[in-house]
Write a structure and sequence with these properties.
two-stranded antiparallel sheet; 2 domains; 9 strands; 326 residues
Length: 326
Amino acid sequence: MEQFDVFLCHNSKDKPAVIQVAQQLQENGIKPWLDIWHLRPGFSWQDSLEEQINEIRAAAVFVGNSGFGPWQSQEIKSFLRAFVNRKCPVIPVLLPDAPQEPKLPVFLQGLMWVDFRLQYPEPMEQLIWGITGMKPGTHPVTTSQNQSTKTDDLSSEKGIDYSRLRDLLKAGKWKEADKETYRVMIQAVGKKDGDWFTSDELLNFPCTDLCTIDRLWVRYSNGHFGFSVQKEIYLSVGGKPDGKYYQVAWNRFGDRVGWRVKSKWIYYINVTFDTLAPKGHLPVIWWGGWFSGKVWVLDMGLFNGWVVGGSGRVSSLASRLVKCSI
């Protein structure tokens, strides 16, 4: 049976940030067990995990702003105790958006945690130490700041080159990356600069390309931006991934990601191209297109007199993300 170094226990709402941690662990030679990577559809997750759990050497329990989900709570009460019984480390991990004073279950209280809200001690080094027992300085650690660009998967079904998007995101050039996201996406659906997306095009967007674009945004923003981040927020406010327009959910989504301020949709010129922006604030330009060097926001007009929008398109993209398992 395949062996793993660490079981990643998390709330599904925190999955984009946890995936990023999992990818960094892999780059450092650590083999994580993550549900979406190792649970085969059509089978009971309890049975699958019970078969595998004795082959996993440690557990990391992630805590984010969303708190603990129902599945995560079940894992804490049952499966995580198996690690304790085998005297394996169980590591609480605070994600970057975790509350100032996170509420940990009694089961986890008293355990040394890893805090990704801090820069020192370096959290990835601390996490690897907890998993492997190797103290910082004895294991080569790769972080999102110094990793080689060769580790990025830039796969495309349509022959699109994503290297420029990767480089812009890696450099933190969020506005340029936002524009580049529109450029590569409009190419992927077979259109030219200046065109805009239809709901049908988003409902059928190539999965490989959508995954590549989202993975780059999530990775280099440390789980703060990206399509999958926007999808989780949209679903959390009552949106449905069916390509239809739900006004209440759309307005709530706009409020959460900062596209709507005091019940008014912002102009594109007022978009915040910085990680200080609300979670899910970017990317935004893909909702519309470019025309004569100006932003064309869907079918509403030029940005000079119109606002950021998206209506049913967020539902269409959410639907595609779900179908592509992103």
